[in-house]
């Protein structure tokens, strides 16, 4: 949730100029929209094993370990299906559900006050 809030703040600059969120803040937060630090493929592969019952290296003819993009919820890897079709594979971070549950618990506590 915090990443999503930061992404929203980064997008609010629009035509507001300095009356909105200062540009240095939106520029710093914009990295969260599509350039978040990527997670290692070995960490992300656990999601593919959970979803498909096998490593991405078995599910696909090939899959690039270096993501082509990473953001707050997931990262995207280039892959090739066994029939030769090029695909983009969006892999959601394995701890996302637990982190979001924690974020919502904090929000519930804050709203109850």
Using the alpha-carbon principal axes, give the shape: flat
- What is the N-to-C order of secondary-structure elements (H for helix, E for strand)? HHHHHEEEEH
Low-confidence stretches: none
How many strands? 4
What's the mean pLDDT score? 80
What share of residues is helical?
A: 40-55%
Q: Helical stretch count?
A: 6
* Rg from Cα: 18 Å
In whole angstroms, the N-to-C terminal distance is 19 Å
Sheet/helix structural class: alpha+beta
- Give the biggest sheet: 4 strands, antiparallel
What percentage of amino acids are in beta strands?
Answer: 15-25%
SSE order and pairing:
Elements: H1 2-11, H2 23-29, H3 31-34, H4 41-52, H5 56-59, E1 62-63, E2 69-70, E3 74-80, E4 86-92, H6 96-111
Task: From the structure above, extract its key features.
113 residues; alpha+beta
Describe this structure in words.
- This protein has 113 residues and is an alpha+beta fold.
- The protein is 47% helix and 16% strand.
- The chain has 6 helices and 4 strands.
- The protein has helices spanning 2-11, 23-29, 31-34, 41-52, 56-59, 96-111, and strands spanning 62-63, 69-70, 74-80, 86-92.
- Strands 1, 2, 3 and 4 form a 4-stranded antiparallel β-sheet that branches.
- Strand 3 (74-80) and strand 4 form a beta hairpin.
- Helix 1 packs across helix 2.
- The radius of gyration is 18 Å and the shape is flat.
- The two termini are 19 Å apart.
């Amino acid at each position: 949730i915090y990443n999503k809030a930061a992404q929203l703040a980064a997008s609010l600059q629009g035509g507001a100029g300095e009356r909105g969120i200062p540009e240095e803040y939106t520029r710093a937060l914009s990295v969260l929209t599509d350039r978040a630090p990527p997670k290692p493929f070995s960490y992300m592969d656990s999601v593919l094993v959970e979803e498909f019952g096998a490593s991405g290296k078995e599910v696909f003819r090939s899959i690039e370990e270096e993501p082509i993009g990473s953001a707050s919820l997931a990262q995207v890897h280039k892959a090739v299906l066994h029939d030769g079709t090029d695909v983009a594979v969006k892999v959601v971070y394995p701890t996302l559900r637990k982190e979001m549950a924690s974020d919502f618990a904090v929000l519930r506590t804050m709203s109850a006050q």
